[in-house]
Structures are given as structure tokens and as C-alpha cells.
Specification:
The protein is an all-alpha fold and 234 residues long. Helices cover 79% and strands 0% of the residues. Helix 1 packs parallel to helix 7, helix 2 packs antiparallel against helix 6 and helix 7 packs parallel to helix 8. The radius of gyration is 22 Å and the shape is elongated.
């Protein structure tokens, strides 16, 4: 059951990632709807003389992601410490009601899975931070309002490229957050594999509903004059 549930966990996570990426090309979701606003943001940025508010927005985004990156390091430190206290942890888990009997080797496997998840989360968060730093450079190098030699088409191309960099940073941040969501499912694995399976199925359902059918998405699309029933233009 341990190996079956772990295989199902990996396939479900990878499958949902591929599904969400493909579905986002034809249907509106949080990520695709925000990209429209990012392009509009960069277009308006090019029309402003003072761009300090834009830099402040990017700084706020970086601080949030930096918090999660730092938290991932702290969680990793705790998980490594848990490996050194495996015998005591197994005794505690065995005393839980409905808990499956667990050996030290099984406990270490589960902790190692969590360690891999948070390492992956850390890499995603730090890559997101780097991409936001690239966006800051693009913001600083953006054409000024009084530069008449820069055509309207060139400004629009610049805005779309800058928005794309921010969009990629947002995707990396989203992947890091998914690591946190799926790690919550792994916590159920320490009690019983069935609880583990129920956990990652519930996580996928929550992610799907939030990304494709949430009220937040409806409000974002309503501001654009769109609705969930409309297909996204490729």
C-alpha cells in the first residue's frame, strides 16, 4: 500500500500539472486571466514618468516569495532533525488511533519524500525570485515616455515581453505553492496509506476548483468583461 499510494501520488501530481497547463490554453484560469492584467500593467508603466509604484509592486511580490523560500529552508531543517529522532517518532505514530504499524525504514522513506518535496519547492521559489529580479531590470531599462524614436509597436512588444517574464515568475511561484499543498497530503501517509490517497485526491480537487472555478476567478474575468463560459483565445 505504501508503494502504491506513493506511485499514485506522483502520477496525480504530475498528471494535474500537465492537465492544468493544457486546459489553461483553452479555458480561463487564474494564471491565464492574470496574464492579461500583466500586459496592461506593463503598457501603463511605459506611459508613466514615475515608475516607483511599479517597482514597489514587484518588491511586494518578491517579499512574499522570499518568505516561502525561507520557510522551506526551516521546514527542511526540521525534517532532517526528524530523521535523527526516528525511533521516538515511530513510537508516537504507533500510539495514534487507526495508525498503520510503521517501521523505522518506512518512517525514513516518508520523511525523505517530504524533504524532496520541499527541496523542489525551494528551487521553484528561488527561481521565481530570480525571474522577478529580471523583471526589475526590464522595468529599469524600459523606454521613457519622452523617447519619441521608440515606436508604439516597439513599446507594445517590450510590454508583452516584460509581462511574460513576470508571468513565468508567477508560474514558478505557483509550482512552489503546489508543493506545500501536496505536502499536506503526505502528512496523512504517516497515519495510513488510505488517508494519504484521500489527501492527495482532495488536494487536486481543491486546486482545480480554485484555479478554474473560484469566485476570485469570476471576479477577475468580470473586470475584463468576460465569463467562465467563454473560451480563451489562443
Amino acid at each position: 500500500m505504501d508503494y502504491v499510494s506513493l506511485a499514485g501520488f506522483c502520477l496525480t501530481w504530475a498528471g494535474y500539472t500537465l492537465f492544468a497547463r493544457k486546459k489553461a490554453k483553452t479555458a480561463w484560469c487564474l494564471a491565464s486571466s492574470m496574464q492579461w492584467y500583466r500586459v496592461e500593467w506593463m503598457l501603463r508603466m511605459l506611459e508613466r514618468d514615475m515608475r516607483m509604484p511599479d517597482a514597489a509592486i514587484l518588491g511586494n511580490l518578491e517579499r512574499v516569495i522570499g518568505f516561502f523560500a525561507s520557510t522551506s529552508i526551516l521546514i527542511l531543517a526540521g525534517l532532517v532533525t526528524a530523521l535523527s529522532a526516528n525511533s521516538a517518532a515511530v513510537e508516537v505514530l504507533s500510539s495514534l488511533p487507526f495508525a498503520q504499524p510503521t517501521t523505522v525504514q518506512q518512517f525514513e522513506l516518508k520523511v525523505l519524500v517530504l524533504i524532496l518535496i520541499y527541496i523542489f519547492a525551494f528551487f521553484n521559489f528561488t527561481w521565481s525570485l530570480r525571474q522577478y529580479s529580471f523583471a526589475n531590470v526590464l522595468l529599469g531599462a524600459a523606454p521613457l515616455v519622452e523617447e519619441d524614436e521608440v515606436t508604439r509597436e516597439e513599446r507594445r512588444r517590450y510590454a508583452i515581453s516584460a509581462a511574460k517574464v513576470i508571468d513565468q515568475a508567477g508560474h514558478s511561484y505557483n509550482y512552489g505553492l503546489r508543493c506545500y499543498y501536496f505536502s499536506m497530503a503526505v502528512m496523512g501517509w504517516f497515519v495510513h496509506p488510505v488517508l494519504f490517497i484521500a489527501g492527495f485526491v482532495a488536494v487536486v480537487w481543491v486546486l482545480y476548483m480554485r484555479e478554474f472555478h473560484s469566485r476570485t476567478l469570476q471576479a477577475i474575468l468580470a473586470a475584463e468583461g468576460r465569463s467562465l463560459d467563454q473560451q480563451r483565445e489562443k
